[in-house]
Amino acid sequence: MTARPGGALTTLAGWSLLVVGVALVPLPGPGALVVVAGLRVLAPRHAWAARWYEPAQARALTAVRAGVATRPRLPLTSLGPAWLVVLSLAYTVDLRVPQVEVAGGRLGPGLPLAGTATTVGLWSSAVIASALFVVGAVRWGPRAVGVTGWTGRLRVAAARAVTGPRAGLRSTVVLAAAVGLCLTAS
Length: 186
Prior knowledge:
Elements lengths: L7 H17 L6 H12 L4 H21 L5 H20 L7 E3 L2 E3 L8 H25 L8 H15 L5 H17 L1
Antiparallel strand pairs: 1-2
Helix pairs in contact: 1-2, 2-3, 4-5, 5-6, 6-7
């Protein structure tokens, strides 16, 4: 039963995100984030999606806040997005690894599961993880209170666009542009 009538296109987009996200969960890619995005799109129209989305959003925000809460955690948390970028680059250039025997099976000379889908999934994960890290560090990091200057205001606006009440596709595009500008301006 729908909580609110809505457009068929929005419902189709939400279901598509949900199905793709579930498929990506065991694969290299941002599966859990795509599932949450699908729930976010469906939540205003379906009560069941709203019930699933709210706890998922709360857990995600708690994890982001915990990862950037203190100065020592910032560099440690940044290792996750950095590792995803390194893996993405390795899959993009189709890095060759030495052939070795592992647990009775062969590994090499190519990377496991190499292909376009894996590369796109890894790059998607790297971009999303990097954006979450930047927004989390700006919004909830140790120096978040004293942000000044135009880049500081831009960073705060980007953080609000993602977590504000009207977070949607438009704010995601604004976030991507703002994160890009922040990274180049820093």
